[in-house]
Amino acid sequence: MLPTVGMVVGVVFGALTSSGGELHAGDVFAAGDAPRRMLLMPAGDGGSMEEERGGTSGEARPERTEHALRTHRTLSVVTTGSLLVTAALGTLTAINEGTAFHDGRCTTGHPLLGDYGCESLHIVHGASAILSVVLYTATAVQGLPLGLNQSEGPLYRILSYVHLVGIVLQPILGLITSYPEVIGINPGAREHFGDVMRTIHIGVGYVTVAAYATTTVLEF
Fold first, then answer.
1. Measuring CA to CA, which of 38, 74, 95, 110 is 20 to 30 A from 214?
2. CA dihedral 150, 153, 155, 157 (to 10 degrees)
3. Of 53, 66, 6, the residue nearest 31 (C-alpha)
4. How many other C-beta atoms can be found within 10 angstroms of the C-beta atom of residue 165?
5. Which helix (H) or strand (E) holds 193?
6. Cα Rg of the chain, angstroms
7. Is pTM, for the whole model, over 0.90?
8. How far apart are CA 153 and CA 215, in angstroms?
């Protein structure tokens, strides 16, 4: 600020001395424009100082966007892996506990993974499902500023809605499958009801995983 004021005073003083003590309005206006001319003076590459400062932030912005996109892709891959593991565990559980199309191996004998497959595997499946939902949510929140639904095309947008609906339904279906009494199912009908719900649960799971995996591929 002080150098600028000194510059203006110097220009005015020079105008006075060169014009024999008479100060003309044009000289004052020229002095007033001096700071602006200094700001707009060409920088080393031919641009103004203002443009040079603006260019720095403009270059940083695409770098931040690219970093966010790489992070989102990594999270998408990790989430896809978690969903695949959850689907695999759900498949093993369905084979052991039965579906609408067959009796479970825990009933007929020779269960997969032995007693562990009948007694504890469904707990691991549930824990994996919780992890998948957490990863899905984190990935979705991190990707919101990127606007991928608008930039990736209609197929990506449709599949995004498909796996969103699936990820919301799956915990509800899993809970009802394991504990049908929460919705008042008669004890005598619980086994058959559980088999039917398990079939729906695993089917929705396959669709959800396929839709999410496809959107992950489309992001690359």
1. 95
2. 0
3. 6
4. 14
5. helix 190-218
6. 34
7. no
8. 11
Q: How far apart are CA 183 and CA 162, in angstroms?
A: 26
> Could you identify the residue written with the tokens 């009796």?
103
Q: Who contacts 63 (Cβ-Cβ below 8 Å, separation ≥6)?
A: none
pLDDT digits (tens, 9 = 90+) for 19-50: 444 444 444 444 444 444 443 444 444 444 44
Distance CA 43, CA 54 (A): 13
Whole-Å CA distances, 90 to 33, 43, 79, 122:
75, 64, 16, 8
Quote the CA–CA distance of 176 and 172 in Å, as a whole number: 6
